[in-house]
């Protein structure tokens, strides 16, 4: 049976399940994400991070969401770098799904849902994203959601001690 995927704004109570997922998946995410301090993997560290995300949400610069499967937190989907000015109106999409829930369509559905939030609730015109050049699963998620690659950002993220390139993606919303 396929579980239902939904998203909602992150809440402080999400800190414990997020921390548990991040501890369990630390090795799986190592190739794609920068090193994090030890506190990142604790409920307290996640509470502090969530407080910061919600402050950004109140300021209009971020829409931080959680991904749910049958009501349980299985990941996050975030629109960051929101530029709401009438001549810009864009944001950057980022997401992760815990290893136990991967390859079940949750990431694709979460991106589909957050694109609706971007267009309908946030009034944005353009969605952007980036992936590591080697992250083919994430690239498939973006492609299936109407994103197109448009360039490479050289030496854009420090991972495991070396600077890595990123593939840049875009989608005009409403298309």
Any overview of this molecule?
It is a single chain. The protein has helices at residues 15-24, 26-29, 43-59, 106-121, 136-144, and strands spanning 5-9, 63-69, 72-83, 90-97, 126-132, 148-159, 162-172. It has 175 residues and is of the alpha+beta class. It has a single domain (5-172), classed as Aminopeptidase, CATH 3.40.630. It has a 7-stranded mixed β-sheet, with helices on both faces. Strand 4 (90-97), helix 4 and strand 5 (126-132) form a beta-alpha-beta unit. Helix 1 crosses helix 3 (43-59). The radius of gyration is 16 Å and the shape is globular.
Name some characteristics of this structure.
single chain, 175 residues, alpha+beta, Aminopeptidase, 7 strands, globular
**CATH-assigned homologous superfamily:** Gcn5-related N-acetyltransferase (GNAT)
Shape from CA axes? globular
Q: Supply the CATH class.
A: Alpha Beta
Tell me the number of strands. 7
* CATH topology heading: Aminopeptidase
Question: Strands of the biggest beta sheet: in what spatial order?
Answer: 1-2-3-4-5-7-6
Poorly predicted residue ranges: none
Number of domains: 1
**What order do the SSEs take from the amino end to the carboxyl end, as H and E?**
EHHHEEEHEHEE
Strand content: 35-45%
Q: In terms of structural class, how would the helical and strand content be classed?
A: alpha+beta
The N- to C-terminal Cα distance equals: 32 Å
């Amino acid at each position: 049976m396929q579980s239902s995927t939904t998203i909602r704004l992150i809440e402080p109570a999400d800190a414990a399940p997020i921390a548990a997922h991040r501890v369990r998946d630390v090795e799986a995410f190592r190739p794609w994400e920068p090193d994090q301090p030890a506190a990142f993997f604790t409920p307290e560290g996640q509470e502090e991070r969530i407080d910061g995300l919600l402050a950004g949400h109140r300021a209009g610069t971020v829409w931080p969401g959680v991904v749910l499967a049958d009501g349980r937190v299985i990941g996050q989907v975030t629109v960051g770098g929101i530029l709401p000015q009438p001549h810009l109106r864009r944001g950057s999409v980022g997401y992760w799904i815990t290893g136990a829930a991967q390859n079940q369509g949750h990431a694709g559905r979460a991106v589909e849902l957050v694109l609706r939030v971007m267009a309908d609730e946030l009034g944005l015109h353009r969605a952007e994203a980036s992936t590591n050049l080697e992250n083919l699963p994430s690239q498939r998620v973006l492609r299936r959601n109407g994103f197109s690659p448009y360039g490479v950002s050289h030496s854009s993220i420090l991972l495991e001690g070396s600077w890595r390139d990123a593939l840049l993606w875009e989608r005009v919303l409403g298309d």
